[in-house]
Amino acid sequence: MKSALVFTLLLSVATPGATASSTLTVIVLDSAGRPVRDAVVSARPQGSPGGVPRYAFGRSMSQRNIQFAPGTLVVPTGTTVSFPNYDKVRHHVYSFSKAKRFELKLFGRDESRSVTFNTPGTVAIGCNIHDQMQGFIRVVDAPFAGVSNEAGKVTFNGVPGGKVQLVVWHPNLRARENEMSIVAASSVMQVIKLPILKR
């Protein structure tokens, strides 16, 4: 059975005389109204110069308890990400993704390797030793980006007024490359249903 991803956009309107910026809140829910975590949302105000990041982002995806932590990481293009191993066992981290193919051969506890991500897109991460390990690095060139939390929420501060292009990605989103894009008006609340495979 398939469910839907509900994409809710709340963008406050700048008051007269105030700076032309807003707080943008995106809430991602499934069709039953339950929050969806680990959805990556990026925002690009129309006419904004370049994709210089205006958000906090991590630079590490560790191996801990035979898992990748965090399971989903969003970074701007050009970021070097470290892969420290905190497990007692060795890991062999790799990706065959179009955005970045790499292989970090066996390394043990308290060792680390790093990779630079220069191409926007999604990089699916695995371990050649532990098949159950799966992670995702979403590389973006938009000035705003974030990962939804347990409440399905992503908040961006200081977004310029006007229209904004939003891209939402989730590994179960039933769309090309697991992502969909909309252009939203800054003064209108929008509810958009996106198809997502059952989690």
Structure explained in plain terms:
The protein has 199 residues and is mainly β. The chain has two domains: 3-52 and 143-196, Immunoglobulin-like, CATH 2.60.40; 62-140, Immunoglobulin-like (Sandwich). The chain has no helices and 17 strands. Residues 12-19 have low confidence and may be disordered.
**Class based on secondary structure composition and strand pairing:** mainly beta
Range of helix content: under 10%
Q: Uncertain segments of ≥5 residues (pLDDT<50)?
A: 12-19
Shape: globular
Q: List the strand order in the largest sheet.
A: 6-12-11-8-9
Number of helices: 0
Number of strands: 17
Tally of distinct domains: 2
By oligomeric state, this entry counts as single chain
Per CATH, which architecture of the largest domain? Sandwich
Largest sheet features: 5 strands, mixed
Radius of gyration: 18 Å
Protein name: Methylamine utilization protein
InterPro entries: CarboxyPept-like_regulatory, Cupredoxin, ET_Amicyanin
Keywords: Signal
Signal peptide: 1-20
In a nutshell, what does this entry contain?
This protein has 199 residues and is mainly β.
